[in-house]
Design a protein that fits this description.
13 helices; 331 residues; 40% helix
């Protein structure tokens, strides 16, 4: 869907029901999103939906996206599903029991003894945190092959009742998508993971997350993120890099989760990068919106196709409030 189509649908739905919509409508123009992918046709979102309705869509569409992303990653790595030892599935926009990995066994050809690790609750930080977890698992056992899949259907959380400013902002930015990659102890990949770190700020549980409503999950965005990022992200990054005997100046490129245009600008300001430096992040946001956990892997994919610099740091922020990093050395 184009952003114009999203705005047209949002106007149809919000105008007249939410008194402040006309004043907030420009957020769609300034969000930095031009197109995005959605799990369902727009008409689906214009009708009231129950939690079972949303869960049914998640089970079907998230499973399809899981398999599509996993197959592409395995094909590029020259592997089959039967050669995977561990599957890490990161998703915070739906609940599936049995897990997506378990539902995908027949389609993907995973072995009966392959370990499945579903990870919930990481939100937008899930791409970086999942990458770090997969790297740890791959390093723990020689020869182990780990498949990481991040899949999110942010759109199924869209709701028609109890509108707020947060719902308007979320509608302007969030989207659906999936990304996958393979990690192993072999030296034939496009990069090596040389470090990872996390930082969680005290007393910040209200910044981002979900709250449970009668018809599903509702987004929580209680504080203005850009000012927080401008103030806090660089000191946290300095501490995380120091644990690897690195400084901010040692990093050739930060590969960032593009949470929104103002978030991108705040990161550029915090690191003194200059406006427009995070060009791949802007491209992914424009083409796909904020897909939560997969988004930073979309940026990493574009970076590696253009040629990774010698040292880069994949970084994303999410509920907690937490920032997660993975340090890469180009092959």
């Amino acid at each position: 869907m184009s952003q114009d189509e999203v705005l047209e649908a949002a106007t149809q739905l919000f105008d007249g029901r939410f008194p402040q919509f006309e004043r907030m409508a420009p957020v769609f123009r300034h969000a930095g999103v031009l197109t995005r992918q959605m799990a369902m046709p727009v008409e689906w979102y214009l009708e009231p939906r129950t939690w079972p309705d949303r869960s049914a869509v998640y089970d079907e569409v998230a499973l399809d996206l899981f398999c599509q992303a996993a197959e592409r990653a395995l094909d590029e790595a020259g592997l089959t599903g039967a050669e995977v030892d561990v599957i890490v599935t990161v998703s915070s926009t739906g609940l599936s029991t049995p897990s997506l990995q378990a539902r995908a066994v027949a389609r993907m050809g995973f072995r009966p003894d392959a370990a499945g690790i579903p990870v919930f609750g990481l939100g937008c930080a899930g791409g970086a945190t999942g990458l770090a977890l997969a790297a740890r698992l791959a390093a723990a056992q020689p020869g182990c092959r780990v498949l990481l899949v991040c899949v999110e259907l942010c759109s199924v959380a869209f709701r028609m009742e109890d509108f707020s400013k947060v719902d308007i902002i979320s509608t302007a930015i969030f989207a659906d998508g999936a990304a996958a990659c393979v990690l192993s102890g072999r030296a034939d990949g496009f990069a090596a993971v040389t470090g990872y770190a996390e930082h969680t700020w005290p007393d910040t549980l209200d910044i981002m997350g979900w709250r449970v409503g009668p018809n599903g999950l509702a987004v929580v965005l209680a504080r203005a993120l850009p000012p927080f990022i401008r103030k806090e992200i660089r000191p946290a990054m300095e501490r995380m890099l120091a644990s690897q005997d690195l400084t901010v100046e040692d990093v050739d490129r930060f590969i960032c989760h593009p949470g929104g245009m103002k978030v991108i600008e705040a990161i550029e300001g915090a690191f003194g990068l200059g406006q427009g430096a995070l060009d791949r992040e802007r491209e992914v946001l424009a083409d796909h919106g904020n897909m939560s956990s997969p988004t930073v892997l979309f940026v990493l994919d574009r970076m590696r196709r253009g040629g990774l610099p010698k040292r880069s740091v994949v970084t994303a922020m999410g509920p907690g409030f937490t920032t997660s990093t993975v340090t890469l050395a180009a092959a």
